[in-house]
Each structure stands twice: as C-alpha cells, then as structure tokens.
C-alpha cells in the first residue's frame, strides 16, 4: 500500500496542478467564483527561488481514514525538486522511521512524528535540518483523496486476478474486502479494497505491486481522458477538501506550467541513504549523513561540489531563538551550519563574521544576513575547528 501511495501522491499532485488549476482557470476565466486556497499565517518555507534555481516542494501524505485528523504522523515524506532550466525533476523519499533530532524535543525521534508534534511547520524544519536544502513550498495530501478521485472519474476499470476476500476488524479502519475475479469497474470503496488486498498473489508483493500499477495506469488514462474536462470542478473540490498547501492559485498555475514540461517517467527517484536499526526495542532508520550530502549534491546542485565550509552560528545577543533563525536563513541559501548554539557572552552589540581563508564565503554570508563586520581571526577559528564563525550581536 505504501508503494501505491508514493506513486499516487506524485501523480495526484502533478495532475491537479496541471489540469485542476490551469484548465479550471481557463474555463472560469479567473472569475471571483474560484475558491482561493487559504494560506497559513506562519510556515517555515524558504524564500522564493531565484529565476534559474531549482524549486523544492515537500510532499506529505497523511492517513486519516479512521477520521482522526489531529496529531497524525506522516505516512509519506518526499521532496519533489523541479529544474525549470532542464525540465527535469527528482523525488527524494524520506523513510518515515528516519531517526532525527526534532526542534523543541529532547533526544532523537522518528521524523514522521514532527507532524504530530507541530504540524507542517515542524515537518518543514525537520526536513530542512536533515537535508540542508531550501524548501520553497509544501503540499499535504490526505489519502481519502483516493476514494474521492476514483468516484470523481466515475470509477476505474481493472482486471481483478482472483477472488479477493478478507476481513480484519482490528485494522485502522477495519478491513473488509470482497471482490470477484474478472474485469470490472471499481468505485472508490472497491478500489481501496483492491489496493489493500495483500494475500493470494503467487509472487507475493511483486504481484500486488503489479496490480497497483495496473490500477494507476487505468486511473491515469481515465483522469487524463478528454471527458475529464467536464469533471475539473470535481477535482478542484477534491483538492480543496483533501490537499493543504502554502501556494496560492496563481502560484500553482505557474508551477503547473513548469510541471507540464516534465516527463513523469523520467523523474529520478531516490531514497535517503541509511540502515534499519533497533534501539530499546524501537525500530528506526539511521540516516547516513555522509551519503546524504553526496546525494544532495547530485540532486540539488547538479552534481557540483556543494560548499562544504564549516560554519558555526553562535548567539551572542541574548535573544531567544535568534541562532536558529540565522541558521535557517543560511541553510536556505546553501550554507548549512555545522554548529548552532550560544556564545560565551550575551552582550555583543554588533554581529561579527570571523574568517581566515574563506573571505568570499564570509562576504556571501554577510550579504544574506544584511549585516555583520568581517574580521580575520585564525586562532579563534582553529579553537572551534571552523572555517567561519557567525557571532550574532544585538543588531540582529
């Protein structure tokens, strides 16, 4: 089921942006009747990308099929990156059990818990901390969209390879499967039965994946058919009901034009490098930081060597949270600090950027922050084993 949802969330999002937004805007002629997506008051998305910069979008999938929408952990976390220059895209999947430190929490936790603790905002921060890349937008999809979309298109015709019968009252929600073998049109409820059926395939999971791919192909053909133009309003309603995003309609329209030029079959798919591990009886996925850095360079920096300047951000102002804020600004521009903490003295009136042989990088950091006195101090850097130290003063 997880494999299907990973495919579905990408398909649904790209389809909705391209057809649901662009075509509906054309038909409605941008009338005032178009429902505007409500924007959140405060999220940790990065500043808009530069003209030729890749656009990184955090895709979140949540399963509230049991009706619980509060404190829900994410089932799927992926970063979709689109390059407007090359019309290429990549998807980096983040295993839900990835062991990370979540801001404001003690010790380590699973990254999928960030949403339960602090919603999309904390999920954004957790992903940015893990990968060290800017995240420009987010889209969160509730899996109930599967039911609604299948019903919106009038059902999906597939071949059911066997009689499927199964009942599990303890599943969430309870699992009731009762499908007959043969070609038939499945509505939303029967489609979910078909997709959730596990046992009975001769080659086990491979057979199930084949069935899910058959379903996706049938759904895609139905959704992308000429008759779909008459159902665009239904897709928009589904989007408004089950999808949460920080993007306005005009932003989605602009992004849709970029996405429409991308060949979905050519999207590069990767998973955060790491290994499964068990700690105190709890299953985690331990990320490999070194391999993550290599993959990030490949996916987000076109294979070029990402700047590996070692940076410390120290709060010398006494203001709470200022070091994290500065660190996030730097991360958004490709400088991921190695150390974020407090300085020995909280009475520094001015911000100072210490450097030795990294003058160009120090100047870039000053430009990002909009202030900071550049000062050469090799001894101080050696003591901290850093290339650059940003000592935050009361002027930030």
TrEMBL record:
It holds the Pfam family LytR_C. Residues 73-224 form the Cell envelope-related transcriptional attenuator domain. InterPro entries: LytR/CpsA/Psr_C, LytR/CpsA/Psr_CW_biosynth, LytR_CpsA_psr. The chain crosses the membrane at residues 7-27. Residues 309-395 form the LytR/CpsA/Psr regulator C-terminal domain. Keywords: Membrane, Transmembrane, Transmembrane helix. Gene3D superfamilies: 3.30.70.2390, LCP protein. Belongs to the LytR/CpsA/Psr (LCP) family. This is Transcriptional attenuator, LytR family. It comes from Tepidibacter formicigenes DSM 15518.
């Amino acid at each position: 089921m997880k494999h299907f949802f990973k495919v579905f969330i990408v398909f649904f999002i790209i389809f909705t942006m391209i057809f649901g937004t662009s075509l509906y805007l054309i038909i409605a002629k941008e009338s005032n009747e178009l429902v505007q997506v409500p924007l959140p008051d405060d999220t940790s998305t990065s500043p808009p990308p530069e003209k030729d910069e890749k656009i990184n979008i955090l895709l979140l999938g949540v399963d509230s099929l049991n009706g619980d929408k509060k404190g829900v952990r994410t089932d799927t976390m992926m970063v979709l990156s689109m390059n407007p220059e090359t019309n290429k895209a990549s998807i980096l999947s983040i295993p839900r059990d990835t062991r990370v430190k979540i801001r404001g929490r003690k010790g380590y936790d699973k990254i999928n818990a960030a949403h339960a603790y602090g919603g999309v905002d904390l999920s954004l921060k957790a992903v940015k901390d893990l990968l060290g890349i800017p995240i420009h937008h987010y889209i969160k999809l509730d899996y109930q969209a599967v039911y609604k979309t299948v019903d919106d298109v009038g059902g999906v015709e597939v071949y059911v390879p066997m009689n499927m019968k199964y009942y599990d009252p303890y599943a969430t929600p309870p699992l009731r499967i009762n499908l007959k073998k043969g070609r038939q049109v499945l509505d939303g409820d029967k489609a979910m039965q078909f997709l959730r059926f596990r046992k009975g395939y001769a080659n086990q999971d491979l057979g199930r994946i084949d069935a899910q791919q058959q379903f996706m192909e049938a759904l895609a053909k139905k959704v992308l058919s000429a008759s779909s133009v008459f159902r665009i309003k239904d897709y928009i309603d589904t989007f408004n009901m089950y999808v949460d995003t920080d993007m306005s309609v005009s932003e989605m329209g602009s992004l849709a034009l970029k996405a429409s030029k991308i060949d979905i079959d050519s999207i590069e798919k990767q998973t955060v490098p790491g290994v499964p591990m068990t700690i105190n009886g709890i299953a985690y996925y331990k990320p490999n930081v070194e391999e993550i850095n290599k993959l990030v360079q490949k996916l987000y920096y076109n294979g070029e060597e990402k700047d590996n300047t070692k940076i410390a951000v120290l709060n010398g102002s006494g203001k709470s949270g200022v070091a994290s804020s500065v660190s996030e600004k730097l991360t958004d521009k490709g400088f991921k600090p190695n150390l974020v903490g407090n300085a020995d003295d909280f009475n520094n009136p001015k911000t100072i950027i210490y450097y030795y042989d990294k003058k160009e990088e120090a100047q870039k950091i000053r430009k990002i922050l909009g202030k900071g006195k550049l000062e050469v101090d090799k001894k101080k850097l050696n003591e901290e084993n850093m290339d650059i130290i940003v000592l935050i003063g009361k002027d930030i």
